[in-house]
UniProtKB/TrEMBL annotation:
Stored Gene3D superfamilies: alpha/beta hydrolase
InterPro entries assigned: AB_hydrolase_fold, RBBP9/YdeN
Name of the protein described by the UniProt record: Alpha/beta hydrolase
Organism encoding this protein: Alicycliphilus denitrificans (strain DSM 14773 / CIP 107495 / K601)
GO molecular function: hydrolase activity
Pfam name, any one: Ser_hydrolase
Length: 184
């Protein structure tokens, strides 16, 4: 009998938001955990990659990563550096950090200075699904499609769902569970 995977939540730069679908998903699923918020170096890509590594290193057995926004970029940076087997990854609403972001988000210079750029474009060493919105303010659908192609990911059109976050009207996001099942 095979062991069921642990679902590892990788949040974006806003970390844990109570009404976010990732937080709701973590509470709902029996084998789920999350990368803890950083106390220092919150904009450091390297610090976030190391936080992901510290969390995943504690998990025994299969893992499915569920990342959102900048969490997707944390995951692809992590995959460039570490070799731990991963059963699969749901990469939701990847933030295009190479294009100027809307007001209220870090500037490109800040992201570049903190190690986020360039975004890794190598094929991921595990199965993955990029779920992209057709009207995401943080990435065009075309850009998300290019990421999916570069990473060897299946692309799922999530519809006109904004950034798939509370500001876009999302608390629970049932599609996330469906995509996890596809990787399971």
């Amino acid at each position: 009998m095979s062991q069921s995977p642990t679902i590892l939540i990788v949040p974006g730069l806003r970390d844990h938001v109570e009404e976010h679908w990732q937080t709701i998903l973590e509470r709902k699923l029996p084998k789920a955990c999350s990368v803890a918020p950083l106390e220092h170096d919150k904009l450091s890509c390297a610090a976030r990659v190391e936080a992901l590594q510290q969390t995943i290193a504690k998990i025994e057995g299969p893992v499915i990563i569920v990342a959102h926004s900048a969490g997707v970029m944390i995951t692809v940076h992590w995959a460039q550096k570490y070799q731990r087997p991963v059963q699969g990854a749901v990469l939701a609403a990847p933030a295009d950090l190479e294009t100027p972001l809307p007001a209220g988000y870090p500037a490109l210079d800040t992201l570049r200075d903190n190690g986020w750029l360039p975004i890794p474009r190598s094929r991921l060493p595990f199965p993955s699904i990029v779920a992209a919105s057709t009207n995401d303010p943080l990435s065009t659908y075309e850009r998300a499609s290019q990421y999916a192609s570069d990473w060897g990911s299946e692309l799922v059109d999530a519809g006109a769902v904004g950034h798939i976050n509370p500001a876009s009207g999302f608390g629970a996001w049932p599609l996330a569970e469906e995509l996890i099942r596809r990787l399971g």
